[in-house]
TrEMBL record:
Pfam families: Glyco_transf_4, Glycos_transf_1. InterPro entries: Glyco_trans_1 (IPR001296), Glyco_trans_4-like_N (IPR028098), Glycosyltransferase_grp1 (IPR050194), Thiol_BshA (IPR023881). Residues 195-341 form the Glycosyl transferase family domain. One of its GO terms (biological process) is bacillithiol biosynthetic process. GO terms for molecular function: glycosyltransferase activity. PANTHER family: SULFOQUINOVOSYL TRANSFERASE SQD2. This is N-acetyl-alpha-D-glucosaminyl L-malate synthase BshA. It comes from Dyadobacter jiangsuensis. Residues 11-180 form the Glycosyltransferase subfamily 4-like N-terminal domain. It comes from the Bacteria.
Length: 374
């Protein structure tokens, strides 16, 4: 098939999933055209089936807010018509679903039919999309999509609960490329961070409020009193400065390192003993799946789709949002040398269930169904 993929090209989970999906589709022989405002971060290899089309947004003094959606729709129209696409697959509803709707109408007026699939990823539904400033457009454009997917049962339910959706939503979970995400031997790195064989705790995120990084700090503050440990924080975002100040105030900076945004996240995960994700809301938890693939057990909240990934007592533990004490108790249990090897093995076994080779056929089958029925 010839597939157009529209996504945010930055570090966010939806952009990562969209890019990895496009790469896997290209490897499977499909022709994939990325349509984004800059080159997707993970589009890091050459394949004869991959194309990248940049959306140009010409500046004009009148535009306080450059009309990105119009430029995106126009680029979709050009690519669909010129490359003869069979399908447009847009990731994250805002504004991609409404831009795709407009492109579809313009193309229809030219006698070209293009089916549109919208994949809902998380905050487009649970946070931003619910805002009255966006809600009518989000509801309308989701309903106008020829196919809708959500990354977990929980997100599917949230979508029906918060929006008047009249169509079926297919659940296709996040997936992982185990060729890239696997535990590598990085002893020198571990020794540099944990010179006295301390346990290494990792958190990766975009440092937004929804991630509850204060909880990560409070869990670690209590944990390091129970056993020698270090904390690595990977990523960047609005909460980073405040969290750095909090660590300084708690006199923790000797045990906590802020690594900022990193491409080779699998190298950090390769030396980790435990991953923390105490999020307020999390539709799937791709970062936690990346940890599992590197044999790192996970302590997560039970928000959103996390119970669909984290098997309580097997791959890690689930706690109520904000229950720091419970998370500390579970973290100490996992990190006990008598328990850690079992949790590590279980983590890998669970990650294998989300291998891209297993999930890709679900997307391909869904594409065929949507194209046939639209
Ligand atoms: O808020 C984020 O973490 C970024 C966001 C995105 O859409 O870029 O991530 C969401 O999509 C990921 C991929 O489907 C999911 O694994 C994340 O759980 C989800 N984040 C939230 O729901 C908070």
């Amino acid at each position: 098939m010839k597939i157009g993929i529209v996504c945010y090209p930055t570090f966010g989970g939806s952009g990562v999933v969209a890019t990895e999906l496009g790469k896997a589709l290209a490897k499977a022989g499909h022709q994939v055209h990325f349509i984004t405002y800059s080159q997707p971060q993970r589009l890091d290899f050459f394949n004869e089936n991959l194309y990248y089309h940049e959306v140009n947004i010409p500046a004009y003094p009148l535009f306080q807010y450059p009309p990105y959606e119009s430029a995106l729709s126009s680029e979709m129209v050009h690519v669909v018509a010129n490359a003869g696409l069979d399908l447009l697959h847009v990731h994250y509803a805002i504004p991609h679903a409404s831009s795709a709707y407009l492109a579809k109408q313009i193309l229809a007026a030219q006698g070209i039919h293009i089916p549109v699939i919208t994949t809902l990823h998380g905050t487009d539904i649970t946070l931003v999309g619910k805002d009255p400033s966006y809600e009518p457009v989000v509801t309308f454009s989701i309903n106008q999509s020829d196919g809708i997917t959500a990354v977990s049962d929980s997100l599917r339910k949230d979508t029906y609960d918060h929006f008047k959706i009249t169509k079926d939503i297919e659940v296709i979970p996040n997936f992982i490329d185990l060729d890239r995400f696997n535990r590598q031997k990085k002893d020198h790195f571990k020794l540099a961070i944990c010179p006295n064989n301390e346990k290494l705790i990792v958190h990766t995120s975009n440092f937004r409020k929804v991630k509850r990084i204060d909880d990560v700090i409070m869990i670690f503050e209590k944990l390091r009193k129970l056993l020698p440990s270090k904390l690595l924080l990977v990523g960047d975002g609005p909460d980073r400065m405040r969290i750095e100040r909090l660590c300084k105030d708690l006199d923790m900076l000797s045990d906590v390192r802020f690594l900022g945004k990193l491409d080779a996240i699998e190298e950090v995960l390769s030396v980790a003993d435990l991953f923390l994700m105490p999020s307020e809301s999390e539709s799937f938890g791709l970062a936690a799946l990346e940890a599992l693939a590197c044999e790192v057990p996970i302590i997560t909240s039970n928000a959103g789709g996390l119970p669909e990934l984290n098997v309580h007592g097997v791959t890690g533990f689930l706690s109520d949002v904000g229950d720091v004490e419970d998370m500390v108790k579970h973290a100490a249990y996992i990190l006990d040398d008598a328990n850690l090897p079992t949790f590590k093995a279980n983590a890998l076994a669970r990650a294998r269930e989300f291998d891209v080779a297993k999930i890709l056929p679900h997307y391909e089958a869904y594409y065929e169904r949507v194209v046939e029925n639209s």
